Amino acid sequence: MAYVPAGSKKRGKQSEKVIKPLKTIPENPYYIIVDKSDYELKVFDEEGWYATYPIVFGSKDLSDKMKEGDKRTPNGSFKVVLKKIHPKWGPELLLDYPNAESVQRFKERKANGILPKNARIGDGIAIHATRPEEEWTIDNFYNWTDGCVSVKYTEMKDLFSYIPVGTKVTIQP
């Protein structure tokens, strides 16, 4: 890389510009698998299993989310699109639901008459904490959300601290 000191006055030659290398963004080593049947959220990195957190959902019916308001957690491949602190339950990782995969399944279900024509897909699915005083919901497998994945408040603070936006999340039955 060429460098021309400031104030250098070379005549007859074009001064060479300093080309700064692009900042490299470190690759995200993490991905998450939510296993609904085991009530576990597992984090993996480039070396394999990294951590496991107990979780709960919205409904005792652990099948795929069908429509807005059914309190089910969607199955599929998602990614974290936003990290924020929710006023009620603190740390939250918002997922990209609905994405193209979930929209396609939703449209097929409507076309096949499985869902009413006026059904809506819903949105706002996240991985978030319990309220600080309600960690017992996880210990007792008490499903309480509107379709989100809920982690104990103290453990969600840990998860939130190292999972970046863009992390892939697979939710499986």
Give a brief description:
The chain is of the alpha+beta class. It contains 3 helices and 8 strands.
3D structure, described in words:
The chain is α+β, with helices and mostly antiparallel strands and 173 residues long. It has a single domain, classed as Beta Barrel (L,D-transpeptidase catalytic domain-like). Helix content is 15%, strand content 28%. It has three helices and eight strands; from the N terminus they run βββββαβαβαβ. Strands 1-2-3-7-6-5-4-8 form an eight-stranded mixed beta barrel. A hairpin with a 3-residue loop joins β4 and β5. The N terminus is likely disordered.
Topology (elements, then pairings):
Blueprint: E1 31-35, E2 40-45, E3 48-56, E4 76-86, E5 90-95, H1 100-111, E6 126-129, H2 136-139, E7 149-151, H3 153-162, E8 168-172
Parallel strand pairs: 1-8, 6-7
Antiparallel strand pairs: 1-2, 2-3, 3-7, 4-5, 4-8, 5-6
